[in-house]
Design goal:
Order of helices and strands: HHHHHHHHH
Structural class: mainly alpha
Radius of gyration: 29 Å
Helix content: over 70%
Distance between the termini: 58 Å
Number of strands: 0
Largest sheet: none
Shape: elongated
Strand content: under 5%
Number of domains: 2
Length: about 160
C-alpha cells in the first residue's frame, strides 16, 4: 500500500519528467540547441529518469523532501472550523458596549477573534463575559478605549484578575 508521501513523490516525478520533455523541445526548436548550465542540466537529467525506482538514493531523498513540502503546504491550508464561542463573545461585547457606552464598536475580527481564542484556552466563556462587563464599567475603558483587544490585553486582564 502506498503512503500519501510515496504517491506525491511519484506525481512530482511525473510532473518533472513532463517538464523536461517540454524544455528539451524548446531547447531544440528550429534545429538550434541552446547551452544549458550544468546545474539545470543535472536537474533535467533527474527529471528525465523514467521510473522513480531507478533513481539513486540522493535523488530519491530530494524528491521525498519535495513531496514533504507539498504535503505540509496542503496541510497548512486546511482550516479548523470556527469556534462558535468566539462569535458569541464578540456579539456579547458589542451588546455590552452598546448598552453601557451607547455605541457599537468597530471590531477587527481577525485580531480580536484570535485574542478571544487564546483566552478561551485558559478561561471559560463566562469568565470572559464577566471580564468584558468589568472592563466596560472600569476606568480602563475610558482611558484606553472600548475594544476587545484592550479588554483582553495582559495589563487590563490582570487587573480584572486582581479584583476577582
Amino acid at each position: 500500500m502506498q503512503t500519501p508521501r510515496d504517491k506525491v513523490t511519484e506525481i512530482c516525478h511525473k510532473i518533472q519528467a513532463d517538464t523536461i520533455k517540454d524544455l528539451l523541445i524548446r531547447a531544440t526548436n528550429n534545429g538550434k540547441e541552446y547551452v544549458i548550465p550544468n546545474d539545470i542540466a543535472e536537474k533535467l537529467r533527474l527529471k528525465a529518469i523514467s521510473e522513480y525506482k531507478n533513481l539513486s538514493k540522493p535523488y530519491k531523498s530530494f524528491l521525498s523532501a519535495y513531496a514533504d513540502r507539498i504535503i505540509s503546504a496542503v496541510k497548512s491550508t486546511k482550516k479548523d472550523p470556527p469556534d462558535a464561542r468566539i462569535k458569541r463573545l464578540i456579539e456579547v461585547f458589542t451588546e455590552y458596549c452598546n448598552n453601557m457606552k451607547g455605541f457599537k464598536p468597530e471590531i477587527n475580527f481577525t485580531a480580536e477573534g484570535s485574542m478571544i481564542k487564546k483566552k478561551l484556552v485558559t478561561y471559560s466563556e463566562e469568565d470572559i463575559k464577566d471580564e468584558f462587563d468589568w472592563f466596560l464599567g472600569s476606568e480602563y475603558s475610558k482611558k484606553f478605549g472600548c475594544t476587545i483587544k484592550t479588554a483582553l490585553g495582559n495589563f487590563v486582564f490582570n487587573k480584572w484578575l486582581e479584583t476577582r
